[in-house]
Amino acid sequence: MKVLFVEDEPVLLEEMETYFSSLDCICEQACTFRQAEQKLRDYMYDVVVLDITLPDGSGIDLITDIRKSHIETGILILSAKDSLQDKLKGLNLGADDYLTKPFYLEELNARVNAIYRRKTLKGEEQITFDQFTMEPLSKSLFFDSKEVCLTRKEYDMLIYFVLNKNRVVSKASIVEHLWGDHFDQNDNFDTVYVHLMNLRKKLSSTSGKDYIKTVYGMGYKFTF
Predict the structure, then answer these.
(1) pLDDT for the residue numbered 16
(2) Which of the listed residues 27, 129, 130, 183 has the most CB atoms within 10 Å of its CB?
(3) Is the same domain home to 134 and 152?
(4) Are residues 171 and 94 part of one domain?
(5) 183 and 154 share a domain?
């Protein structure tokens, strides 16, 4: 899961990123309206955790832009005010949930995961293709009920491919989804290639099929 935290309180921002990173989420952060606007223009996210009160604008004003360009992105609003007016305005503009500060990180995690399952996974607890079954909550993969061991990156890559089946995805989009802005742009794509080849081998050795097709000059396509 790729999450953008938009929050102007440095301590809370760091706490949220540390907590969700420990759960193997790809986390990015913005502490101003302008930073958030730029990131949302340049990148895709599964969920945006959005503070209402920012030093240079209102997080509410970002919701419409998110909905115009990223209809599948989940939005959870944070606010220090338990204001019914703010809550209704945010939800009416397209936010998926609302949480009032202060809150427990465990509750935030539960809310974010609920949004992710509902928006990205379409409410599915399991995702199946051929004889494979994926369980997103436990990040497990099974073939005919026997577990297939994948690394975290391999699993995240697989679910990205499955959710984008029959579409050509570029190496750049894979990098963005799996590493976010933590990826060193000065590096080449060897890391991506290694993870992809390992995933490809594990799937083909288990099922006898090659699901990941190379589209030369463009990227890769997952078909089954």
Answers:
(1) 97
(2) 27
(3) yes
(4) no
(5) yes
